[in-house]
Recover the amino acids of this structure.
């Protein structure tokens, strides 16, 4: 039995992971919340609490921002880029060295399968590795002002940055925000979702052990109302990176406006997967399945709408339904095909969408019901679900379910598919499956989305900028554009 298997066996025996972080992470160490209050974190695969964590509030947020501001002014902003890069590179190495423990914590906290959590941990390490290499490549420009003048620009760190981290991808979303912020010379206050606090705390400890000075990264756990709202509205915050719902994103924008605080908002989507008659059928089937059922459909960029050309729709859907019915459910530590959803409240929300669809006469091709772990009868599960062709104004087409529910739309040809794909208020990502590369790139140009995948859904990585249009938000994370999100440009013009 290897080390990971032994740790999984221990978790199964005890119901928890030993030595989880205890407290908020402030000024280089763990400490209890000022109020001394705690909250429980639940294992979605069982529907039971497995650990408790500190319930921070506005006083803790203020202490974290003060610590981050002090660390920014005391030297992190002026730390040589090459030294920042060395610290971030050590972070990547430590994440990989402790990958088993991080993945199991993520699996318990979020419910996702262990394989998915392992992929997220590797992605977090890659984010720190990528931005470690970018620290000393953040170059300004010179301006041709003519003889007798010198003009140039500087990329300066914006200051203290706030990161509101969602529950569906806790460690990977934290890494894609923290790594570029730290690379640019900013300091950080992170607020993980109340459902999934632990890997952000574990990451902060890793950063410290890699050599990050005290106060440069702080983590305040707690509820959105008690910790999140005071953080995004704090006058000491220079930039907010938020990933979450449209409704909450609007509140964040309004709060940030009081202090004219910069924002990057990633607010979800209703992303289409366009499948045309000349597609590679096997690649398209696998892509559609992964796009909607990975992480139980709880992905902002999930391919939740299948826009398929009529000529192949019947045979494609027949095979897609057959494969969907073979998907296994279960606790994430057993590595089934699909794990649970995040909470009882979210399960009820998903079920509500499907039940309303039933009352509208929707044809449910497969799934459509609340389920449980077949081995234990526990947990918050929803069957992988496919719902037949719905009109463009249907709720299942227009609104984000954020669960394992795929809605089908039938297109007459590529142009009709484009019209259907663009027919929602969201614009995060889109997928295209076709063997005609000319058609693929023509559609890619006209799709109203921040990112387009061609012949492989979720293609790309940390190198590729990510963000949306319309209700999906604005600003970009990942890639070098993500690094620039944490910089302000200063121009200098001098007469010589």
């Amino acid at each position: 039995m290897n080390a990971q298997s032994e740790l999984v066996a221990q978790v199964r025996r005890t119901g928890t992971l030993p030595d989880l972080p205890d407290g908020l992470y402030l000024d280089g160490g763990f400490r209890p919340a000022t109020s001394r209050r705690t909250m429980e974190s639940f294992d979605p695969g069982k529907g039971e609490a497995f650990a408790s964590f500190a319930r921070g509030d506005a006083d803790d947020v203020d202490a974290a921002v003060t610590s981050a501001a002090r660390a920014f002014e005391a030297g992190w902003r002026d730390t040589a880029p090459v030294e920042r890069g060395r610290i971030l590179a050590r972070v990547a190495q430590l994440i990989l060295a402790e990958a088993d423990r991080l993945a199991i914590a993520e699996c318990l906290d979020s419910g996702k399968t262990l394989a998915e959590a392992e992929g997220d941990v590797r992605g977090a390490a890659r984010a720190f590795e990528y931005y470690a290499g970018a620290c000393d490549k953040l170059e300004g420009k010179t301006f041709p002002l003519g003889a007798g003048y010198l003009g140039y620009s500087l990329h300066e760190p914006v200051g203290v940055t706030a990161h509101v981290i969602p529950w569906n991808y806790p460690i990977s979303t934290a890494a894609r925000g923290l790594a570029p912020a730290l690379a640019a010379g900013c300091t950080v206050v992170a607020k993980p979702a109340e459902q999934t606090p632990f890997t952000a705390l574990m990451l902060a400890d890793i950063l410290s052990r890699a050599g990050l000075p005290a106060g440069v990264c702080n983590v305040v756990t707690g509820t959105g109302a008690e910790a999140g709202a005071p953080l995004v509205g704090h006058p000491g915050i220079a930039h907010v990176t938020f990933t979450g719902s449209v409704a909450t994103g609007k509140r964040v924008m309004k709060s940030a406006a009081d202090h004219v605080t910069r924002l990057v908002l990633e607010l979800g989507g209703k992303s289409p997967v366009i499948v045309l008659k000349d597609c590679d059928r096997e690649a398209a089937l696998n892509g559609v399945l992964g796009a909607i059922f990975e992480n139980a459909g709880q992905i902002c960029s999930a391919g939740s709408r299948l826009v398929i050309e009529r000529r192949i729709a019947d045979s494609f859907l027949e095979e897609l339904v057959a494969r969907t019915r073979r998907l296994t459910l279960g606790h994430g530590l057993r590595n089934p095909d699909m794990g649970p959803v995040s909470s009882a409240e979210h399960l009820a929300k998903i079920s509500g969408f499907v039940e309303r669809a039933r009352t509208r006469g929707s044809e449910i091709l497969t799934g459509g019901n609340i389920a449980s772990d077949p081995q234990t009868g526990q947990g918050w599960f929803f069957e992988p679900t496919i719902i037949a062709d719905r009109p463009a104004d249907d709720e299942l087409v227009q609104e984000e379910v954020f669960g394992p529910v795929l809605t089908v739309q039938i297109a007459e040809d590529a142009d009709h598919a484009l019209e259907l794909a663009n027919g929602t208020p969201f614009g995060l990502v889109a997928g295209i499956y076709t063997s005609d590369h000319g058609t693929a790139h023509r559609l890619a140009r006209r799709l109203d989305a921040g990112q387009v995948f061609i012949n492989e859904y979720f293609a790309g990585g940390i190198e590729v900028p990510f963000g949306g249009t319309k209700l999906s938000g604005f600003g970009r994370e990942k890639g070098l554009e993500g690094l620039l999100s944490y910089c302000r440009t200063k121009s200098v013009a001098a007469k010589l």
Remarks:
- Residues 114-134 form the longest helix (21 residues).
